[in-house]
Amino acid sequence: MKHARRIALVRRPASTLAEGQLTHIERTPIDARLARAQWRDYVAALEAEGWETREVDPADELPDSVFIEDAVVMFGDVAVVTSPGAESRRGESAGAAAAVGGLGVTVHRLELPGTLDGGDVLKVGNTVYVGQSLRTNAEGTRQLAAIVVPLGYAVVPVPVTRALHLKTAVTALPDGTIVGYPPLVDDEGLFDRFLAVPEAEGTAVVVLDEQTVLMSSSAPRSADLFRERGYRVVTVGISEFEKLEGCVTCLSVRIR
Ligand code: CIR
């Protein structure tokens, strides 16, 4: 299949990575060298699958800046630079705005008191599920809706109380099936087609193309489930980012 454009924004890990935010899990030591190697492997996996990667300027003083997905959300040729919900992450927006500014897309910015992390935004076709979490509030959701509803999207707020972000709990396969780890999902009934996965790390899939998903090597049984459904699964080790409540989606912003 020929793709007109497949660009992924990535942001290399800060030297302060180990100080990243933690909400639902205990802090365990981060192996900084392994984190850098895993990040390079993640970037290499995207490139091997035909994605051109572009680096957002690194931000060493921002521990969570590697989780670039939270700082900007793409809707076709429209970029929404977010207003991060954690105070320690607010500085990430400037670099994200500069990066999308160079892509020739329309750029919008969310503003306080609205807060929204990209990890709470799950697009499935024209539906935009927005997790109402500790990071994303009603005003942030309202500002996002004001931008994307005129573009033809429907915004559906969903409660997120058992996970950091909506996409920590659920993501979507290329056919639109929502995949989630039930203990992390507030209400499976909100989704038309829901497939339960057996591992917490198995909820996060990056759609690389209609046949292929990228996911964490920490979830081999979930990977088998996706293979049984006919998908090709590319796996990457991201243990050091999982220790910081990161997942495979949050390490890039895909522009297609
Ligand atoms: C945080 O708490 O903000 C980071 N330590 C992890 C962010 C993960 N982002 C994501 O799932 N989209």
Automatic annotation (TrEMBL):
Keyword flag Disulfide bond: no
Residue numbers binding substrate: L22, D64, E69, D70, R89, R135, L244
Superkingdom of the source species: Bacteria
Pfam families xref list: ADI
Catalytic residues as annotated in Swiss-Prot or TrEMBL: H165 (proton donor), C250 (nucleophile)
Sequence similarity: Belongs to the DDAH family.
Protein name, UniProt field: N(G),N(G)-dimethylarginine dimethylaminohydrolase
Organism listed in the record: Cryobacterium tagatosivorans
